[in-house]
Design goal:
Strand content: 15-25%
Order of helices and strands: EEEHEHHEHEEHEEHEH
Largest sheet: 8 strands, mixed
Strand order of the largest sheet: 1-2-5-6-7-8-9-10
Radius of gyration: 17 Å
Distance between the termini: 22 Å
């Protein structure tokens, strides 16, 4: 487990090692694997697996920040081991982000915040991820619009049904970024109309300005 610069979590936990088979071009982990010539084989790190049990102070822990936990190439028995630790370390909050919610194979323990990652408000396939999320059993359901690669200004119907929205831009990779007008409008809908907390990541500070809105789910 590692402390991290990801602002909405305390630590990252990567008990499943290897090159993520999703292959997103903006993925920072893929760049690290290439740069440092890390072993790309997908495997379970038994030592890392136990780390949440060893940390007694409650933390927010981002699960598998470098790999897609529900990808078909990840063996189910690896996920089984991960969720055993999540269940046993019930004083911790585990944050899980996926691009494949239709492949989720279990209900989430109460100490899991379950989210989906999208990069646009207009791509139908990405909106479908959110509908799959909303059909899952989880105490907190959130959407990470990061990196937001569009500049669209619209109010998706799913906004009223989530518990938390993260907004971020692209970092150290080529791609478009949202305008301040687009961010302001989305934040207005989410916070003022639906009363849902918003977390704007630091990488949008140059567009949004200061202070950033960095809220967490209600009751968390």
């Amino acid at each position: 487990m590692n402390k991290t610069k990801i602002e909405w979590t305390d630590m990252t936990w990567n008990p499943i090692k290897g090159l993520c088979p999703m292959g997103c071009y903006y993925c920072y982990a893929r760049r690290f694997y290439k740069r440092f010539k890390w072993n790309p084989e997908i495997r379970l790190d038994e030592k890392e697996l136990l780390r949440p049990l060893e940390i007694k102070k409650p933390k927010k822990i981002f699960v598998c920040s470098t790999i897609e936990l529900f990808h078909p190439e990840i063996p189910k028995e690896f996920r089984d081991e991960v969720f055993k630790i999540i269940t046993n370390a019930n004083w911790q909050i585990f944050q899980i982000l996926t691009k494949l919610p239709h492949l989720i194979d279990r209900d989430m323990p109460d100490n899991v915040w379950l989210g989906v990652s999208i990069s646009s408000l207009e791509i139908i396939q990405e909106e479908e991820r959110i509908w799959w999320l909303l059909n899952q059993k989880a105490k907190i359901k959130f959407v990470s619009l990061e990196p937001w690669l569009g500049q669209e200004i619209r109010c998706p119907s799913w906004l009223s049904d989530i518990d938390w929205l993260i907004i971020g831009g692209i970092t150290n990779a080529k791609g478009s970024r949202p305008t301040k007008e687009a961010i302001c409008k989305l934040v207005e809908w989410v916070r003022d109309f639906f009363g849902i907390p918003v977390f704007i990541k630091d990488n949008l500070a140059d567009i949004w300005g200061e202070p950033l809105i960095q809220e967490f789910p209600k009751g968390a």
